[in-house]
Amino acid sequence: MERGAVIVAGFGFRSGAALPSLRAAFALAQQGQPPVTHLATAQDKLAALLPLAEVLDLPLMGVASDALTAVSTPTRSAASLSARHVGSVAEASALAAAGAGARLLAPRHISPDRMATCAIAASANLQEIPT
Q1: By the number of CB atoms within 10 A of the CB, which of 1, 92, 97, 124 ranks highest?
Q2: Which DSSP string corresponds to 67-114?
Q3: Cβ neighbours of residue 58 under 8 Å, at least 6 residues apart?
Q4: What is the 3-state secondary structure (H, E, C) of 7-18?
């Protein structure tokens, strides 16, 4: 991995989503992906993601609403479109936080209880990882 590259796990979640839901979505999205360097979500939901950031010892990034809606996501969730005007909060958070030219490594994955979603994005300067 090139120095300075970031791998961001972006999250979307319902009010009341607890740490087990966030961890489950993260575990599903992370399978087969490079190690995550940052977590991200909508700015107004940062406090709810803080426990996961602390458990994983990863920095947490908040994404402004206008930055979320500026990102086009492959997933088109009716709930996300209605609530946030974006197809997937998880995908948009990951892509926006990873920076200009970022690419999605893992589309959103949904926790088994359907309370949280997680997607993984990489900054543009991430080199391909040998397999």
Answers
A1: 92
A2: HHHTS--S---HHHHHHHSSS-HHHHHHHHHH-TT-EEEEEEEE-TTS
A3: 36, 37, 38, 39
A4: EEEEEEECCCCC
Q: Is 101 left (phi over 0), alpha (psi -120 to 50) or beta?
A: left
Structure tokens at 12: 């979307």
Residue with tokens 């990882």: 129
SS3 45: helix
Q: How would you class 100 by CB atoms within 10 Å of its CB: exposed for 0-12, middle for 13-18, buried for 19 or more? A: exposed
Q: What percent of the chain has pLDDT over 90?
A: 69
Q: What is the pTM for the complete model shown?
A: 0.89
CB distance 42 to 68 below 8 Å: yes
User: How far lies 118's CA from each of 29, 72, 92, in Å?
Assistant: 6, 16, 10
Over residues 88-103, the pLDDT tens digits come to 999 999 999 999 889 9
Question: Measuring CA to CA, which residue among 3, 1, 74 is closest to residue 34?
Answer: 1
